[in-house]
Amino acid sequence: MTDATWERWSRGMGVVFAVLALAAFLIFGEAPKIEDSPEEVASFYQDDGGRVLTALTIFAFAFIPLFWFVGAIANALRSAGEGRLAATAIAAVAAWAAAQFVFGASAAPLAVVVAERADPDVSYALHALGLCIDNISAFALAAAILAASVGLARARLLPAWFTWFGAVAALLVALHGTNWADEGFWSPGGGYVYVVVIVGLLWIVATSVLLFRAPVTPDPSARASVAAT
């Protein structure tokens, strides 16, 4: 495979992440909400622990193609002279990924043993912690979406309208960080999480497909290093 072919397929890894992430989301199912009782939370993880662990494993694995995809975005931005936005996108995705791994690390023990053996209040506390971490991480994901959208449009790798598409997507994702109601649609784990999942995956798929179809520009630094040898 040529470098250009590798680069093109790396750009397509966003679609792979979206498929795996959606599968994980569907398998996990409807998690308890912040207003549910400690007993309901503990019962969910006891009864559906296998399903929860399967979903968490798939979601964790999905980060492999995601990192590959983000690397392709950063490489395209650096090649076009948008190094600052490339660095911003990488840092923001790293922060969001770290938060999601912490979220998974708080849910997995519940499914393995905690929900069965510990007091229901302990299960509720861990579950609520995970929901709040997911809320706060939305700002990092929004920053990544905005930086990548602006950079790719400025580099003319994607159409100019993509900046506005990314800005709207980033705003909708960032609003997830304000889901602090005690119950209902705007609470942690409430209905707004479905909006975030749909918008986030739609942006990733659109970006991946458009970038896959865009021309691949060789990395100037790579050319320079080859010339030097």
Key features of this structure:
9 helices, 229 residues, 79% helix, 0% strand, mainly alpha, disordered C terminus, single chain
| Quaternary structure state of the chains depicted | single chain
Which term fits the overall shape?
Answer: elongated
Strand percent estimate? under 5%
The overall number of domains is 1
Uncertain residue ranges: 222-229
Distance from first to last alpha carbon: 22 Å
Summarize the biggest pleated sheet. none
Number of strands: 0
Sequence of secondary-structure elements: HHHHHHHHH
The helical percent reads over 70%
Structural class: mainly alpha
Report Rg: 19 Å
Overall pLDDT confidence: 92
Total of helices: 9
Describe this structure in a few short sentences:
The chain has 229 residues and is an all-alpha fold. The chain contains 9 helices and no strands.
Structural notes for this entry:
With 229 residues, the chain is an all-alpha fold. It has one domain. Helices cover 79% and strands 0% of the residues. The chain contains 9 helices and no strands. It is elongated and about 55 Å long. The C terminus is likely disordered.
Secondary structure: elements and pairs:
Blueprint (H helix, E strand, L loop, with lengths): L2 H9 L1 H16 L9 H10 L1 H31 L3 H35 L2 H35 L6 H14 L17 H22 L6 H9 L1
